[in-house]
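Example complex used in Figure S2.
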Amino acid sequence: MLCVLNKKMTVDPINVSNVTKSFDGGKVSVLRDVSLRVVRGKLVSLCGPSGCGKSTLLQIIAGIEGADTGQVFVEGVSLENEAKRLHALRHKIGFIFQLHNLIADLTMEENCLIPSIAIGKDRGEALDRFHELANRIGLEKRTRHRIQDLSGGERQRVAICRALMNRPSIIVADEPTGALDQKTSWSVFGLLCDLVVSDQVTMIMATHDQNLAKSSDRMLSMRDGVIE
Amino acid sequence: MQFVQLAILNLRRHLIRTLIGGAGITFGVIAMLCVVTILQGAVRMFERILSSDSEMIIFERNVSDLFFSNVPEDSIREINQLEGIARVEPALFGIVSSEESPVVTCFGISRQSTRLSQATWLEGSHQQFLDQGDQGNQVVLGKRAANFMEATMGEEVVVGHQRFRVAGIIETKNGFEDGGVFMPLAVCQKYFHKEGVASVATVKLLDKSRASEVKRIIEAQFPNLIALENEEFSQNYSQFRILKITSWLVGGIAFLLGGLSVANTMILAVFGRIREIAILRVNGFSRQQVAGLIFGESLLVALMGVLVGTFLSVGALHLLKSLPTLQGYIDTRLDPLLLLAAMGMAFVTGLAGALYPAYYAMKIRPADALRFE
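Predicted assembly (601 residues):
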Protein backbone atom coordinates (compact mmCIF):
# COMPACT_ATOMS: atom_id res chain seq x y z
CA MET A 1 0.00 0.00 0.00
CA LEU A 2 2.79 2.36 1.03
CA CYS A 3 4.67 1.37 -2.09
CA VAL A 4 1.68 2.26 -4.28
CA LEU A 5 1.27 5.53 -2.41
CA ASN A 6 4.93 6.37 -2.85
CA LYS A 7 4.75 5.54 -6.52
CA LYS A 8 1.75 7.82 -6.92
CA MET A 9 3.52 10.59 -5.09
CA THR A 10 6.56 10.33 -7.37
CA VAL A 11 4.60 10.29 -10.64
CA ASP A 12 3.97 13.72 -12.14
CA PRO A 13 0.22 14.32 -12.24
CA ILE A 14 0.48 15.87 -15.72
CA ASN A 15 3.05 14.77 -18.26
CA VAL A 16 2.64 15.91 -21.85
CA SER A 17 5.11 14.54 -24.35
CA ASN A 18 5.60 15.78 -27.93
CA VAL A 19 1.93 16.49 -28.54
CA THR A 20 0.74 17.86 -31.87
CA LYS A 21 -2.78 18.81 -32.86
CA SER A 22 -4.24 20.26 -36.01
CA PHE A 23 -7.73 20.99 -37.28
CA ASP A 24 -9.44 21.18 -40.65
CA GLY A 25 -7.72 18.07 -41.98
CA GLY A 26 -4.24 19.22 -40.96
CA LYS A 27 -4.54 22.67 -42.54
CA VAL A 28 -4.61 24.51 -39.20
CA SER A 29 -1.80 23.43 -36.92
CA VAL A 30 -2.62 24.38 -33.32
CA LEU A 31 -0.07 22.49 -31.20
CA ARG A 32 3.43 21.67 -32.37
CA ASP A 33 5.48 19.17 -30.47
CA VAL A 34 4.40 20.40 -27.05
CA SER A 35 5.95 18.83 -23.97
CA LEU A 36 5.14 19.75 -20.37
CA ARG A 37 5.38 18.39 -16.85
CA VAL A 38 3.50 19.67 -13.84
CA VAL A 39 4.65 18.82 -10.34
CA ARG A 40 2.09 17.68 -7.75
CA GLY A 41 0.41 20.34 -5.66
CA LYS A 42 1.57 23.26 -7.79
CA LEU A 43 -0.38 25.94 -9.63
CA VAL A 44 0.92 26.47 -13.15
CA SER A 45 -0.23 29.35 -15.33
CA LEU A 46 -0.28 29.18 -19.09
CA CYS A 47 -0.16 32.55 -20.80
CA GLY A 48 -0.24 33.60 -24.40
CA PRO A 49 -2.28 35.46 -26.98
CA SER A 50 -5.66 34.26 -28.19
CA GLY A 51 -5.41 31.40 -30.67
CA CYS A 52 -1.97 30.27 -29.50
CA GLY A 53 -3.30 26.84 -28.50
CA LYS A 54 -3.81 27.20 -24.74
CA SER A 55 -7.39 25.95 -24.70
CA THR A 56 -6.64 23.05 -27.03
CA LEU A 57 -3.70 21.97 -24.87
CA LEU A 58 -5.84 22.12 -21.72
CA GLN A 59 -8.61 20.13 -23.40
CA ILE A 60 -6.11 17.48 -24.47
CA ILE A 61 -4.72 17.29 -20.92
CA ALA A 62 -8.28 16.92 -19.59
CA GLY A 63 -9.16 14.19 -22.10
CA ILE A 64 -11.89 16.26 -23.75
CA GLU A 65 -9.91 16.25 -26.99
CA GLY A 66 -7.45 13.67 -28.33
CA ALA A 67 -3.95 14.52 -29.60
CA ASP A 68 -2.90 13.76 -33.18
CA THR A 69 0.53 12.56 -32.10
CA GLY A 70 2.47 12.44 -28.85
CA GLN A 71 1.35 11.23 -25.44
CA VAL A 72 -0.45 12.64 -22.43
CA PHE A 73 -0.09 10.99 -19.04
CA VAL A 74 -2.45 11.87 -16.22
CA GLU A 75 -1.38 10.42 -12.89
CA GLY A 76 0.92 8.12 -14.85
CA VAL A 77 -1.84 6.76 -17.12
CA SER A 78 -1.61 7.42 -20.84
CA LEU A 79 -4.77 8.96 -22.29
CA GLU A 80 -4.33 6.88 -25.42
CA ASN A 81 -7.98 5.97 -26.01
CA GLU A 82 -11.46 7.29 -25.29
CA ALA A 83 -12.04 4.95 -22.35
CA LYS A 84 -8.91 6.17 -20.57
CA ARG A 85 -9.68 9.79 -21.37
CA LEU A 86 -13.21 9.34 -19.97
CA HIS A 87 -11.85 7.72 -16.81
CA ALA A 88 -9.43 10.61 -16.29
CA LEU A 89 -12.19 13.15 -16.89
CA ARG A 90 -14.46 11.42 -14.39
CA HIS A 91 -12.05 10.65 -11.57
CA LYS A 92 -8.78 12.59 -11.92
CA ILE A 93 -9.62 15.92 -13.49
CA GLY A 94 -11.97 18.79 -12.79
CA PHE A 95 -12.37 21.22 -15.69
CA ILE A 96 -13.29 24.89 -15.28
CA PHE A 97 -14.25 26.90 -18.36
CA GLN A 98 -14.00 30.63 -18.97
CA LEU A 99 -17.75 30.84 -19.61
CA HIS A 100 -18.54 28.45 -16.75
CA ASN A 101 -20.58 26.14 -19.06
CA LEU A 102 -23.32 25.58 -16.55
CA ILE A 103 -26.89 24.69 -17.56
CA ALA A 104 -28.70 27.97 -17.06
CA ASP A 105 -32.15 26.73 -16.11
CA LEU A 106 -30.92 24.13 -13.62
CA THR A 107 -30.21 25.03 -10.03
CA MET A 108 -26.73 25.23 -8.57
CA GLU A 109 -27.32 21.87 -6.85
CA GLU A 110 -28.56 20.17 -10.01
CA ASN A 111 -25.58 21.45 -12.01
CA CYS A 112 -23.09 20.35 -9.41
CA LEU A 113 -24.54 16.84 -9.15
CA ILE A 114 -23.94 16.11 -12.85
CA PRO A 115 -20.40 14.71 -12.41
CA SER A 116 -21.58 12.43 -9.60
CA ILE A 117 -24.46 11.15 -11.79
CA ALA A 118 -21.89 10.35 -14.50
CA ILE A 119 -19.97 8.06 -12.14
CA GLY A 120 -23.10 6.62 -10.52
CA LYS A 121 -22.27 7.98 -7.08
CA ASP A 122 -24.82 7.51 -4.29
CA ARG A 123 -27.05 10.60 -4.12
CA GLY A 124 -26.66 11.04 -0.36
CA GLU A 125 -22.89 10.91 -0.58
CA ALA A 126 -22.94 13.30 -3.54
CA LEU A 127 -25.16 15.75 -1.66
CA ASP A 128 -22.85 15.66 1.38
CA ARG A 129 -19.90 16.54 -0.83
CA PHE A 130 -21.91 19.25 -2.59
CA HIS A 131 -22.93 20.97 0.66
CA GLU A 132 -19.37 20.80 1.96
CA LEU A 133 -18.13 22.51 -1.22
CA ALA A 134 -21.02 25.01 -1.26
CA ASN A 135 -19.96 26.08 2.24
CA ARG A 136 -16.36 26.42 1.20
CA ILE A 137 -17.16 28.64 -1.78
CA GLY A 138 -19.61 30.69 0.27
CA LEU A 139 -22.73 29.82 -1.71
CA GLU A 140 -24.50 27.60 0.83
CA LYS A 141 -27.56 29.86 0.67
CA ARG A 142 -27.76 29.78 -3.12
CA THR A 143 -27.91 26.03 -3.67
CA ARG A 144 -31.53 26.01 -4.91
CA HIS A 145 -31.10 29.07 -7.10
CA ARG A 146 -31.08 28.71 -10.85
CA ILE A 147 -27.82 29.60 -12.56
CA GLN A 148 -29.56 32.35 -14.53
CA ASP A 149 -30.30 34.08 -11.22
CA LEU A 150 -26.65 34.13 -10.08
CA SER A 151 -23.99 36.78 -10.75
CA GLY A 152 -20.96 36.13 -12.97
CA GLY A 153 -18.68 35.58 -9.98
CA GLU A 154 -21.16 33.26 -8.33
CA ARG A 155 -21.52 31.24 -11.53
CA GLN A 156 -17.77 30.76 -11.73
CA ARG A 157 -17.75 29.62 -8.09
CA VAL A 158 -20.47 27.10 -8.96
CA ALA A 159 -18.30 25.90 -11.86
CA ILE A 160 -15.42 25.42 -9.40
CA CYS A 161 -17.74 23.54 -7.05
CA ARG A 162 -18.88 21.24 -9.90
CA ALA A 163 -15.28 20.61 -10.97
CA LEU A 164 -14.40 19.44 -7.45
CA MET A 165 -17.40 17.16 -6.92
CA ASN A 166 -15.62 13.88 -7.69
CA ARG A 167 -12.51 14.87 -5.66
CA PRO A 168 -10.13 15.25 -8.63
CA SER A 169 -6.38 15.46 -8.05
CA ILE A 170 -5.97 17.88 -10.95
CA ILE A 171 -7.84 21.06 -11.83
CA VAL A 172 -7.62 22.28 -15.41
CA ALA A 173 -8.94 25.82 -15.72
CA ASP A 174 -9.32 27.58 -19.04
CA GLU A 175 -9.28 31.30 -18.28
CA PRO A 176 -11.49 30.91 -15.22
CA THR A 177 -11.44 34.65 -14.55
CA GLY A 178 -11.56 35.79 -18.17
CA ALA A 179 -15.16 36.98 -18.03
CA LEU A 180 -14.98 38.59 -14.58
CA ASP A 181 -14.09 42.06 -13.35
CA GLN A 182 -10.78 42.53 -11.58
CA LYS A 183 -12.11 42.36 -8.05
CA THR A 184 -14.13 39.21 -8.71
CA SER A 185 -11.20 37.73 -10.64
CA TRP A 186 -8.96 37.98 -7.60
CA SER A 187 -11.67 36.58 -5.38
CA VAL A 188 -12.11 33.52 -7.64
CA PHE A 189 -8.35 33.15 -8.04
CA GLY A 190 -7.95 33.30 -4.27
CA LEU A 191 -10.51 30.54 -3.91
CA LEU A 192 -8.66 28.37 -6.43
CA CYS A 193 -5.34 28.95 -4.61
CA ASP A 194 -6.97 27.95 -1.31
CA LEU A 195 -8.25 24.73 -2.88
CA VAL A 196 -4.82 23.90 -4.30
CA VAL A 197 -3.32 24.23 -0.85
CA SER A 198 -6.08 22.67 1.24
CA ASP A 199 -6.95 19.75 -1.07
CA GLN A 200 -3.41 19.23 -2.35
CA VAL A 201 -4.60 19.42 -5.92
CA THR A 202 -2.47 20.26 -8.90
CA MET A 203 -3.72 23.03 -11.13
CA ILE A 204 -2.94 24.23 -14.61
CA MET A 205 -4.65 27.45 -15.59
CA ALA A 206 -4.75 29.40 -18.83
CA THR A 207 -4.96 33.16 -18.29
CA HIS A 208 -4.45 36.46 -20.03
CA ASP A 209 -4.00 38.24 -16.72
CA GLN A 210 -0.27 38.67 -16.14
CA ASN A 211 -0.82 39.60 -12.49
CA LEU A 212 -2.65 36.36 -11.78
CA ALA A 213 -0.04 34.40 -13.74
CA LYS A 214 2.76 35.92 -11.71
CA SER A 215 1.02 34.85 -8.49
CA SER A 216 1.12 31.17 -9.50
CA ASP A 217 3.95 28.74 -8.70
CA ARG A 218 5.11 28.59 -12.31
CA MET A 219 4.31 30.57 -15.42
CA LEU A 220 4.51 29.17 -18.96
CA SER A 221 4.16 31.15 -22.17
CA MET A 222 2.73 29.83 -25.39
CA ARG A 223 2.95 31.23 -28.88
CA ASP A 224 1.86 29.70 -32.18
CA GLY A 225 1.33 26.27 -30.69
CA VAL A 226 4.66 26.05 -28.92
CA ILE A 227 5.60 26.49 -25.25
CA GLU A 228 8.41 29.03 -25.15
CA MET B 1 -31.86 6.54 -9.75
CA GLN B 2 -30.19 9.94 -10.15
CA PHE B 3 -30.03 9.21 -13.89
CA VAL B 4 -33.81 8.76 -14.04
CA GLN B 5 -34.25 11.93 -11.99
CA LEU B 6 -32.11 13.81 -14.51
CA ALA B 7 -34.27 12.47 -17.38
CA ILE B 8 -37.45 13.56 -15.56
CA LEU B 9 -35.87 16.94 -14.83
CA ASN B 10 -35.04 17.41 -18.52
CA LEU B 11 -38.61 16.56 -19.52
CA ARG B 12 -40.01 19.00 -16.96
CA ARG B 13 -37.72 21.76 -18.18
CA HIS B 14 -39.14 21.42 -21.69
CA LEU B 15 -42.72 20.79 -20.69
CA ILE B 16 -44.48 21.90 -23.88
CA ARG B 17 -42.15 19.79 -26.04
CA THR B 18 -42.67 16.85 -23.69
CA LEU B 19 -46.46 17.24 -23.78
CA ILE B 20 -46.47 17.38 -27.60
CA GLY B 21 -44.39 14.19 -27.78
CA GLY B 22 -46.59 12.51 -25.17
CA ALA B 23 -49.72 13.59 -27.04
CA GLY B 24 -48.52 11.69 -30.12
CA ILE B 25 -48.23 8.47 -28.13
CA THR B 26 -51.48 9.23 -26.30
CA PHE B 27 -53.38 9.51 -29.59
CA GLY B 28 -51.75 6.32 -30.82
CA VAL B 29 -52.83 4.46 -27.67
CA ILE B 30 -56.36 5.90 -27.83
CA ALA B 31 -56.71 5.04 -31.52
CA MET B 32 -55.46 1.52 -31.03
CA LEU B 33 -57.43 0.75 -27.87
CA CYS B 34 -60.67 2.31 -29.08
CA VAL B 35 -60.64 1.07 -32.67
CA VAL B 36 -59.53 -2.45 -31.81
CA THR B 37 -61.85 -2.70 -28.79
CA ILE B 38 -64.87 -1.46 -30.75
CA LEU B 39 -64.19 -3.74 -33.72
CA GLN B 40 -63.33 -6.73 -31.52
CA GLY B 41 -66.53 -6.06 -29.61
CA ALA B 42 -68.45 -5.98 -32.88
CA VAL B 43 -66.87 -9.26 -33.93
CA ARG B 44 -67.77 -10.79 -30.54
CA MET B 45 -71.37 -9.65 -30.97
CA PHE B 46 -71.54 -11.14 -34.48
CA GLU B 47 -70.04 -14.34 -33.13
CA ARG B 48 -72.72 -14.48 -30.45
CA ILE B 49 -75.46 -13.83 -33.00
CA LEU B 50 -74.15 -16.61 -35.20
CA SER B 51 -73.36 -19.16 -32.52
CA SER B 52 -76.50 -18.62 -30.38
CA ASP B 53 -76.28 -21.46 -27.88
CA SER B 54 -74.60 -23.82 -30.35
CA GLU B 55 -71.20 -25.31 -31.03
CA MET B 56 -71.11 -25.30 -34.81
CA ILE B 57 -72.21 -23.18 -37.72
CA ILE B 58 -73.08 -24.37 -41.24
CA PHE B 59 -73.10 -22.12 -44.28
CA GLU B 60 -72.65 -22.27 -48.04
CA ARG B 61 -69.17 -23.17 -49.18
CA ASN B 62 -67.07 -20.46 -50.89
CA VAL B 63 -69.21 -17.45 -49.99
CA SER B 64 -67.33 -14.48 -48.54
CA ASP B 65 -70.32 -12.93 -46.78
CA LEU B 66 -72.97 -14.82 -44.83
CA PHE B 67 -75.68 -12.53 -46.20
CA PHE B 68 -75.13 -14.23 -49.57
CA SER B 69 -75.04 -17.76 -48.16
CA ASN B 70 -77.90 -20.13 -49.02
CA VAL B 71 -78.38 -23.24 -46.92
CA PRO B 72 -81.38 -25.26 -48.21
CA GLU B 73 -84.05 -26.00 -45.62
CA ASP B 74 -84.14 -29.62 -46.85
CA SER B 75 -80.48 -30.02 -45.98
CA ILE B 76 -81.10 -28.48 -42.55
CA ARG B 77 -83.87 -31.00 -41.90
CA GLU B 78 -81.59 -33.89 -42.97
CA ILE B 79 -78.72 -32.63 -40.82
CA ASN B 80 -81.10 -32.44 -37.86
CA GLN B 81 -81.64 -36.21 -38.24
CA LEU B 82 -77.92 -37.04 -38.14
CA GLU B 83 -76.50 -38.95 -35.21
CA GLY B 84 -74.89 -36.83 -32.44
CA ILE B 85 -76.93 -33.72 -33.18
CA ALA B 86 -79.27 -32.28 -30.56
CA ARG B 87 -80.73 -29.43 -32.54
CA VAL B 88 -80.22 -27.46 -35.78
CA GLU B 89 -81.62 -23.95 -36.02
CA PRO B 90 -81.86 -22.08 -39.32
CA ALA B 91 -81.31 -18.32 -39.47
CA LEU B 92 -81.82 -16.05 -42.42
CA PHE B 93 -80.19 -12.62 -42.31
CA GLY B 94 -81.36 -9.60 -44.21
CA ILE B 95 -80.90 -5.85 -43.98
CA VAL B 96 -83.50 -3.21 -44.67
CA SER B 97 -83.65 0.48 -43.95
CA SER B 98 -86.41 2.34 -42.20
CA GLU B 99 -87.23 6.00 -41.74
CA GLU B 100 -85.74 5.89 -38.28
CA SER B 101 -82.58 3.90 -39.02
CA PRO B 102 -80.55 3.37 -42.18
CA VAL B 103 -79.72 -0.20 -41.19
CA VAL B 104 -82.18 -2.62 -39.62
CA THR B 105 -81.04 -6.20 -39.41
CA CYS B 106 -83.78 -8.79 -39.91
CA PHE B 107 -83.44 -12.27 -38.45
CA GLY B 108 -85.57 -15.00 -39.99
CA ILE B 109 -85.80 -17.73 -37.35
CA SER B 110 -88.08 -20.54 -36.28
CA ARG B 111 -90.72 -19.63 -33.69
CA GLN B 112 -89.09 -22.11 -31.26
CA SER B 113 -85.61 -20.58 -31.67
CA THR B 114 -83.47 -20.30 -28.56
CA ARG B 115 -82.82 -16.68 -29.57
CA LEU B 116 -86.43 -16.01 -28.57
CA SER B 117 -86.74 -18.50 -25.71
CA GLN B 118 -83.56 -17.24 -23.99
CA ALA B 119 -84.32 -13.53 -24.46
CA THR B 120 -85.97 -11.34 -21.85
CA TRP B 121 -89.48 -10.51 -23.08
CA LEU B 122 -90.24 -6.87 -22.22
CA GLU B 123 -93.66 -7.01 -23.84
CA GLY B 124 -95.52 -10.23 -24.65
CA SER B 125 -94.05 -13.66 -23.99
CA HIS B 126 -92.48 -16.43 -25.97
CA GLN B 127 -95.36 -18.78 -25.10
CA GLN B 128 -97.91 -16.24 -26.29
CA PHE B 129 -95.96 -15.87 -29.51
CA LEU B 130 -95.91 -19.64 -30.00
CA ASP B 131 -99.62 -19.94 -29.18
CA GLN B 132 -100.59 -17.34 -31.79
CA GLY B 133 -99.41 -19.65 -34.58
CA ASP B 134 -98.38 -18.48 -38.03
CA GLN B 135 -100.34 -15.34 -38.83
CA GLY B 136 -98.10 -14.26 -41.68
CA ASN B 137 -97.12 -10.73 -40.71
CA GLN B 138 -95.90 -10.90 -37.11
CA VAL B 139 -92.51 -9.67 -35.95
CA VAL B 140 -90.76 -9.49 -32.62
CA LEU B 141 -88.71 -6.34 -32.11
CA GLY B 142 -85.49 -5.96 -30.25
CA LYS B 143 -85.60 -3.34 -27.47
CA ARG B 144 -83.64 -0.72 -29.39
CA ALA B 145 -85.54 -1.32 -32.61
CA ALA B 146 -88.81 -0.83 -30.70
CA ASN B 147 -87.39 2.42 -29.29
CA PHE B 148 -86.35 3.95 -32.57
CA MET B 149 -89.50 2.72 -34.32
CA GLU B 150 -91.52 4.02 -31.36
CA ALA B 151 -93.53 0.81 -31.44
CA THR B 152 -95.34 -1.09 -28.72
CA MET B 153 -96.88 -4.51 -28.73
CA GLY B 154 -99.90 -4.94 -30.97
CA GLU B 155 -99.08 -1.90 -33.09
CA GLU B 156 -98.17 -2.04 -36.75
CA VAL B 157 -94.68 -1.04 -37.85
CA VAL B 158 -93.23 -0.42 -41.29
CA VAL B 159 -90.14 -2.51 -42.02
CA GLY B 160 -88.80 -1.69 -45.43
CA HIS B 161 -91.67 -1.94 -47.91
CA GLN B 162 -94.06 -3.90 -45.71
CA ARG B 163 -96.18 -3.46 -42.57
CA PHE B 164 -95.93 -5.94 -39.69
CA ARG B 165 -97.72 -6.34 -36.40
CA VAL B 166 -95.54 -6.30 -33.28
CA ALA B 167 -96.01 -9.61 -31.44
CA GLY B 168 -93.49 -8.91 -28.71
CA ILE B 169 -90.45 -6.85 -27.64
CA ILE B 170 -87.35 -8.58 -26.35
CA GLU B 171 -84.02 -7.68 -24.79
CA THR B 172 -80.94 -9.77 -25.45
CA LYS B 173 -77.34 -9.32 -24.34
CA ASN B 174 -76.40 -8.36 -27.86
CA GLY B 175 -76.62 -4.84 -29.26
CA PHE B 176 -77.12 -5.97 -32.84
CA GLU B 177 -79.97 -8.31 -31.88
CA ASP B 178 -81.52 -5.57 -29.74
CA GLY B 179 -81.53 -3.32 -32.80
CA GLY B 180 -83.03 -6.05 -35.02
CA VAL B 181 -86.38 -7.36 -36.19
CA PHE B 182 -87.14 -11.05 -35.65
CA MET B 183 -89.44 -12.64 -38.21
CA PRO B 184 -90.68 -16.17 -38.53
CA LEU B 185 -88.41 -17.89 -41.06
CA ALA B 186 -91.09 -18.30 -43.73
CA VAL B 187 -92.03 -14.60 -43.49
CA CYS B 188 -88.44 -13.56 -43.76
CA GLN B 189 -87.81 -15.89 -46.72
CA LYS B 190 -90.77 -14.40 -48.57
CA TYR B 191 -89.80 -10.85 -47.70
CA PHE B 192 -86.23 -11.28 -49.00
CA HIS B 193 -87.22 -13.59 -51.89
CA LYS B 194 -85.22 -16.46 -50.46
CA GLU B 195 -87.84 -19.14 -50.23
CA GLY B 196 -86.58 -22.52 -49.03
CA VAL B 197 -83.20 -21.34 -47.77
CA ALA B 198 -81.52 -19.93 -44.67
CA SER B 199 -78.26 -17.96 -44.44
CA VAL B 200 -76.78 -20.26 -41.81
CA ALA B 201 -77.74 -23.14 -39.58
CA THR B 202 -76.42 -23.35 -36.04
CA VAL B 203 -75.83 -26.81 -34.63
CA LYS B 204 -76.14 -27.91 -31.00
CA LEU B 205 -74.32 -31.17 -30.42
CA LEU B 206 -75.21 -33.95 -28.01
CA ASP B 207 -71.52 -34.45 -27.30
CA LYS B 208 -69.12 -31.55 -27.94
CA SER B 209 -66.15 -33.88 -28.15
CA ARG B 210 -67.61 -35.39 -31.33
CA ALA B 211 -67.60 -32.06 -33.17
CA SER B 212 -64.92 -32.98 -35.74
CA GLU B 213 -66.61 -36.28 -36.52
CA VAL B 214 -70.00 -34.57 -37.05
CA LYS B 215 -68.32 -31.91 -39.14
CA ARG B 216 -66.76 -34.57 -41.42
CA ILE B 217 -70.10 -36.32 -41.86
CA ILE B 218 -71.92 -33.09 -42.76
CA GLU B 219 -69.27 -32.02 -45.25
CA ALA B 220 -69.24 -35.50 -46.84
CA GLN B 221 -73.02 -35.61 -47.26
CA PHE B 222 -73.46 -31.96 -48.26
CA PRO B 223 -70.47 -30.94 -50.39
CA ASN B 224 -71.92 -27.47 -51.04
CA LEU B 225 -71.93 -26.69 -47.33
CA ILE B 226 -69.15 -26.01 -44.87
CA ALA B 227 -69.40 -26.76 -41.15
CA LEU B 228 -67.11 -24.97 -38.71
CA GLU B 229 -66.83 -25.07 -34.96
CA ASN B 230 -67.51 -21.63 -33.48
CA GLU B 231 -63.89 -20.84 -32.67
CA GLU B 232 -62.77 -22.11 -36.06
CA PHE B 233 -65.41 -19.94 -37.70
CA SER B 234 -64.24 -16.80 -35.86
CA GLN B 235 -60.69 -17.37 -37.01
CA ASN B 236 -61.54 -18.18 -40.62
CA TYR B 237 -64.52 -16.07 -41.54
CA SER B 238 -63.10 -13.54 -43.98
CA GLN B 239 -65.26 -10.63 -42.77
CA PHE B 240 -63.99 -11.08 -39.22
CA ARG B 241 -60.44 -11.36 -40.49
CA ILE B 242 -60.83 -8.15 -42.48
CA LEU B 243 -62.28 -6.36 -39.45
CA LYS B 244 -59.50 -7.58 -37.17
CA ILE B 245 -56.72 -6.76 -39.64
CA THR B 246 -58.24 -3.34 -40.32
CA SER B 247 -58.45 -2.51 -36.64
CA TRP B 248 -54.80 -3.46 -36.06
CA LEU B 249 -53.74 -1.57 -39.18
CA VAL B 250 -55.55 1.58 -38.06
CA GLY B 251 -54.01 1.23 -34.60
CA GLY B 252 -50.58 0.58 -36.12
CA ILE B 253 -50.79 3.64 -38.38
CA ALA B 254 -51.86 5.75 -35.41
CA PHE B 255 -48.77 4.54 -33.58
CA LEU B 256 -46.60 5.33 -36.57
CA LEU B 257 -47.87 8.92 -36.41
CA GLY B 258 -47.28 8.90 -32.65
CA GLY B 259 -43.75 7.63 -33.31
CA LEU B 260 -43.08 10.47 -35.73
CA SER B 261 -44.26 12.88 -33.07
CA VAL B 262 -41.87 11.37 -30.51
CA ALA B 263 -39.02 11.35 -33.04
CA ASN B 264 -39.70 14.99 -33.83
CA THR B 265 -39.80 15.88 -30.15
CA MET B 266 -36.59 14.04 -29.38
CA ILE B 267 -34.79 15.47 -32.44
CA LEU B 268 -35.77 18.96 -31.27
CA ALA B 269 -34.71 18.03 -27.75
CA VAL B 270 -31.26 17.01 -28.97
CA PHE B 271 -30.73 19.78 -31.53
CA GLY B 272 -31.78 22.37 -28.97
CA ARG B 273 -29.45 20.94 -26.33
CA ILE B 274 -26.20 20.38 -28.22
CA ARG B 275 -24.26 22.62 -25.85
CA GLU B 276 -25.93 21.03 -22.85
CA ILE B 277 -25.02 17.55 -24.08
CA ALA B 278 -21.44 18.75 -24.55
CA ILE B 279 -21.49 20.00 -20.94
CA LEU B 280 -22.63 16.55 -19.79
CA ARG B 281 -19.82 14.96 -21.80
CA VAL B 282 -17.09 17.19 -20.34
CA ASN B 283 -18.46 16.40 -16.89
CA GLY B 284 -17.93 12.69 -17.34
CA PHE B 285 -20.96 11.41 -19.25
CA SER B 286 -19.98 8.73 -21.75
CA ARG B 287 -21.52 8.54 -25.23
CA GLN B 288 -23.60 5.57 -24.01
CA GLN B 289 -24.84 7.52 -21.00
CA VAL B 290 -25.90 10.40 -23.27
CA ALA B 291 -27.73 7.95 -25.56
CA GLY B 292 -29.26 6.31 -22.47
CA LEU B 293 -30.49 9.69 -21.28
CA ILE B 294 -32.17 10.36 -24.66
CA PHE B 295 -33.74 6.87 -24.71
CA GLY B 296 -34.77 7.28 -21.07
CA GLU B 297 -36.50 10.58 -21.80
CA SER B 298 -38.23 9.05 -24.81
CA LEU B 299 -39.41 6.04 -22.79
CA LEU B 300 -40.74 8.34 -20.08
CA VAL B 301 -42.67 10.26 -22.76
CA ALA B 302 -44.01 6.91 -24.02
CA LEU B 303 -44.96 5.88 -20.47
CA MET B 304 -46.80 9.15 -20.01
CA GLY B 305 -48.58 8.57 -23.35
CA VAL B 306 -49.58 5.04 -22.33
CA LEU B 307 -50.99 6.11 -18.97
CA VAL B 308 -52.90 9.12 -20.28
CA GLY B 309 -53.96 7.23 -23.44
CA THR B 310 -55.29 4.25 -21.49
CA PHE B 311 -57.17 6.48 -19.06
CA LEU B 312 -58.71 8.51 -21.89
CA SER B 313 -59.52 5.37 -23.91
CA VAL B 314 -61.45 3.82 -21.03
CA GLY B 315 -63.30 7.11 -20.62
CA ALA B 316 -64.00 7.44 -24.36
CA LEU B 317 -65.27 3.86 -24.63
CA HIS B 318 -67.61 4.31 -21.69
CA LEU B 319 -68.80 7.62 -23.13
CA LEU B 320 -69.51 5.96 -26.49
CA LYS B 321 -71.25 3.10 -24.73
CA SER B 322 -73.51 5.50 -22.87
CA LEU B 323 -74.57 7.39 -26.00
CA PRO B 324 -78.23 6.52 -26.68
CA THR B 325 -77.64 5.97 -30.42
CA LEU B 326 -74.85 3.48 -29.75
CA GLN B 327 -76.35 1.75 -26.75
CA GLY B 328 -75.80 -1.96 -26.96
CA TYR B 329 -73.58 -1.74 -30.04
CA ILE B 330 -70.35 -1.10 -28.18
CA ASP B 331 -68.64 -3.71 -26.10
CA THR B 332 -66.17 -1.81 -23.90
CA ARG B 333 -64.33 -4.75 -22.38
CA LEU B 334 -60.64 -3.87 -22.71
CA ASP B 335 -58.69 -6.98 -23.61
CA PRO B 336 -55.60 -7.20 -21.31
CA LEU B 337 -53.60 -8.57 -24.23
CA LEU B 338 -54.59 -5.55 -26.31
CA LEU B 339 -53.50 -3.28 -23.47
CA LEU B 340 -50.17 -5.09 -23.32
CA ALA B 341 -49.82 -4.81 -27.10
CA ALA B 342 -50.57 -1.07 -26.97
CA MET B 343 -48.02 -0.60 -24.18
CA GLY B 344 -45.46 -2.64 -26.09
CA MET B 345 -46.05 -0.63 -29.26
CA ALA B 346 -45.85 2.64 -27.34
CA PHE B 347 -42.47 1.70 -25.88
CA VAL B 348 -41.17 0.37 -29.21
CA THR B 349 -42.39 3.61 -30.83
CA GLY B 350 -40.68 5.63 -28.10
CA LEU B 351 -37.41 3.75 -28.60
CA ALA B 352 -37.61 3.93 -32.40
CA GLY B 353 -38.36 7.65 -32.20
CA ALA B 354 -35.25 8.17 -30.08
CA LEU B 355 -32.89 6.14 -32.31
CA TYR B 356 -31.67 8.92 -34.56
CA PRO B 357 -31.64 11.63 -31.85
CA ALA B 358 -29.62 9.33 -29.58
CA TYR B 359 -27.21 8.50 -32.41
CA TYR B 360 -26.82 12.21 -33.16
CA ALA B 361 -26.28 13.01 -29.48
CA MET B 362 -23.60 10.31 -29.23
CA LYS B 363 -21.74 11.82 -32.16
CA ILE B 364 -21.58 15.33 -30.65
CA ARG B 365 -17.93 16.30 -30.10
CA PRO B 366 -17.92 18.25 -26.84
CA ALA B 367 -14.88 20.37 -27.68
CA ASP B 368 -16.41 21.49 -31.00
CA ALA B 369 -19.85 21.99 -29.50
CA LEU B 370 -18.51 24.18 -26.68
CA ARG B 371 -16.26 26.09 -29.06
CA PHE B 372 -18.83 26.92 -31.72
CA GLU B 373 -22.31 26.65 -30.20
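The mean pLDDT of chain B is 86. The interface with chain A takes residues 1-3, 6, 9, 13, 275-276, 278-286, 289, 366-367, 370 of chain B (CB under 8 Å).
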